[in-house]
From TrEMBL:
Entries under Pfam families matching the protein: DUF2849 (PF11011)
Lineage top rank: taxon: Bacteria
Name recorded for this polypeptide: DUF2849 domain-containing protein
InterPro entries: DUF2849
Length: 101
């Protein structure tokens, strides 16, 4: 029996700033989870991950994260990914300070 595939997004950290970033369908790195490309095909997800991992001058630690379709774009499925959308939690500036959580 074939297992069902859970949609994925490609996520990483920006090399210089360290911010969490997401690969978009038009090959940009966005800091907004809802702009990420929701990948519903396992083979395509692997190709997108390889594409991301080759961008060592822009990002580090690229990986595939489970996601689901939402009304405004992909939404995190797991707590860890939801937490990453809120930005760093060890200082009061950035996304949390500006109220973009």
């Amino acid at each position: 029996m074939a297992r069902s595939y859970t949609p994925k997004i490609v996520t990483a950290n920006a090399l210089i700033e360290g911010d969490v970033v997401y690969l978009t369908a038009d090959d940009r790195w966005s800091r907004r989870h809802e702009e990420a490309e929701l990948i519903e095909d396992e083979a395509h997800a692997q190709l997108r991950l390889l594409h991301a991992q080759a961008q060592k001058n822009l990002i580090v630690g690229a990986y595939l994260a489970d996601a689901k379709a939402g009304p405004n774009g992909p939404e995190p499925v797991h707590f860890r990914e939801a937490f990453r959308t809120r930005g760093p939690s060890n200082y009061a500036h950035g996304k949390q300070e500006a109220g973009h959580v």
